[in-house]
Amino acid sequence: MNDMEDYRFPLGKYEPAVEISDADIDDYIRVLKDFPGRLKNVVDSWTDDMLDTPYRPGGWTVRQLINHLSDSHMNSYIRFKLALTEDNPVIKPYNEAKWAELQDSFTIDIKPALRILKGLHQRWVYELKALTNREFQRTFVHPEQQRSITLRESLAFFAWHCSHHLAHIENLKKRMNW
Questions:
Q1: pLDDT surpassing 70 at residue 2
Q2: SS3 for 125?
Q3: Contacts of 129-132 spanning 24+ positions with Cβ under 8 A
């Protein structure tokens, strides 16, 4: 991997697991449970200048990244709920890059996004812990991927998503000696 790839994918590109065990599910839920606190601990004392630093050359600022996490995880939570209440619903994709350019991602204080993540993840984890194996097999259709995705698969991805973006921020902090 070259340097730019290391910046983009500090944990490597997402590789879907062939099989996801119950133990894996427990680990993924733990990642979601711990993520808001871990994120807050890393950025809590950061100044606006620090938050407005791109996490990689040509990338979003940390402020945009934190707001992206809030947006992305809200969408995922809703997709979970749709899959649990409808039969293989087709979900609505959204343009992440354009959302990151809106004022509520680009200039707002990060506290609202951190509060959303904290509350959202509490609700999400509460629901996840109540799901049966059969419910984890429920699906939604992602039109851009042109396939059905199980909740088990989606949970695995979003656990990676948490760790992936947290690594972006932690790596920036380390590079900048903050």
A1: no
A2: helix
A3: 129/29, 131/84
pLDDT score of 157 more than 90: yes
Task: State the Cα–Cα distance between residues 29 and 126, nearest whole angstrom.
Answer: 9
Average pLDDT, the chain: 95
Domains and CATH numbers, the chain: 20-176 (1.20.120.450)
Per-residue burial over 100-127, b if 16 or more Cβ lie within 10 Å, else e, is beeeebeeeebeebbebbeebbeebbee
- pLDDT value of residue 8: 86
Contacts made by residues 111-115, CB under 8 angstroms, sequence distance 24+: 112/70, 113/66, 113/67, 113/69, 113/70, 114/36, 114/39, 114/40, 114/43, 114/66
Give 61's strand partners: 54
* Residue with the two structure tokens 């707002």: 108
Task: Tell me if residue 63 falls in helix, strand or coil.
Answer: helix
